[in-house]
Structures are given as structure tokens and as C-alpha cells.
Write a structure and sequence with these properties.
By secondary structure, this protein is α+β, with helices and mostly antiparallel strands. The chain has two domains: 82 residues, no CATH class; 105 residues, no CATH class. Helices cover 29% and strands 16% of the residues. It has four helices and six strands; from the N terminus they run ααβαβββββα. Strands 1, 2, 3, 4, 5 and 6 form a six-stranded antiparallel β-sheet that branches. A hairpin with a 5-residue loop joins strand 3 and strand 4. The termini are far apart.
Length: 198
């Protein structure tokens, strides 16, 4: 491509009153312009059609869509509304998935698929089996081969329980110390230490 061959590289109208001539459009310039436009249309895989006046627009839209396709995971450029709404939709398969909520009378010993499970009801937790506490909360599960790990956090955020299964045997639940219990435990341990010193 090149600019038109005038001193300022611009097109000019002629002026009959002064005898000024208009810019002469050369075959070289027209051929260059045609070549530039045609190359875009053909690069998009579109067959030239003399009866259409929007092929350049179609070509640009297609080239942009094709270039963006790997980023859009197969969705059309013009269909933004179908952007994936899950990690799996973006090809991320190793994230901790949010599982359906835990229902009534669920045995936590039967929950071994990796994911996050929410128990939103105290009564449902109380009616279930092998809960570490009869309160609502979040169950975290990670399973790997013969091992399965569970953590349960109560909805008040005061305590965390954990246990592990090896083959078919679950360990007992272990519990973190609730923050509200720490001062009393410190007092007890301090008194014990002072007693031993006397």
C-alpha cells in the first residue's frame, strides 16, 4: 500500500475557474487499494462476490472471532452472554467443587467425593450420622486414593473438626480449641505449673 502521489499525499478536487486539475488516480494506487481490501476478505476464507458490499466487514468480524476463539473456549465472539459460569467451563478441572447442600439424616461417613458441602440446618445436622457437632456448618472433603480427609467448621466459626479415612476406617474427630475456652485453659495450665513449682 502507498499514499497517492501528490506533494502532500492527499487527494484534491479540480477547479475549472483557475484551471487547477484534480488529483490523477493512478492504476498503481487503485491496484494497491484493491489488493489491500481483497487480501483481508480472502484471509477470512470468504469468496469475493461483486454483488455484496459488506464483505470487508464480514471478513474483519470473522478474523477477530477466530482469533478470540481460544480465549472464549469455543464461544462465538458475538455471543458474549454465553461466557462460562463455572471453573469447569474454563477448563479448570482441579478446583474444589461446591457440592449440593447436605440433606436430613445424611451419614458423613458416606461423603468421600472431593468438594465443599454445606449444612444449613441445625436440625438436619442433628438428625444425621457421624457429625462432630449437631450444628450447621461447612464440610470440606478431599479424597486421594485410599485416603479421604474431612474438615467440618460450625456456622458460628468457633471450632474446626478434622478426621481422616484410610481404606474403610474413619479416625475419630479431632477438634480445635474454641477461642472462648482459651483464657480458662491458660488459667488451668498456669495453676498447674505453679502447683508443681511449690
Amino acid at each position: 500500500m502507498h499514499k497517492i502521489n501528490t506533494p502532500d499525499s492527499l487527494f484534491h478536487d479540480g477547479d475549472p475557474s483557475t484551471g487547477a486539475l484534480g488529483t490523477i488516480v493512478t492504476a498503481a494506487w487503485l491496484n494497491a487499494m484493491q489488493g489491500e481490501l481483497v487480501s483481508v476478505i480472502e484471509a477470512a476464507g470468504i469468496k469475493l462476490d461483486a454483488g455484496k458490499t459488506n464483505q470487508l466487514l464480514q471478513a474483519i468480524a470473522k478474523l477477530v472471532s477466530d482469533a478470540a476463539a481460544p480465549l472464549k473456549h469455543g464461544h462465538l465472539w458475538t455471543d458474549i452472554s454465553k461466557t462460562p459460569t463455572t471453573l469447569a467451563g474454563y477448563g479448570i478441572g482441579d478446583a474444589l467443587a461446591l457440592k449440593p447442600g447436605l440433606a436430613d439424616k445424611v451419614d458423613l461417613n458416606s461423603i468421600s467425593e472431593t468438594g465443599l458441602y454445606h449444612q444449613s440446618n441445625n436440625a438436619a445436622a442433628e438428625s444425621g450420622s457421624n457429625y462432630p457437632t449437631p450444628y450447621a456448618g461447612m464440610l470440606f472433603v478431599f479424597s486421594a486414593g485410599l485416603m479421604c480427609y474431612q474438615q467440618f467448621q460450625d456456622y458460628q466459626g468457633k471450632r474446626l473438626w478434622w478426621r481422616v479415612k484410610y481404606r474403610d476406617a474413619w479416625s475419630s474427630w479431632n477438634a480445635s480449641t474454641a477461642l472462648v475456652e482459651l483464657p480458662g485453659q491458660w488459667d488451668t495450665r498456669l495453676n498447674q505449673r505453679m502447683t508443681f513449682q511449690y
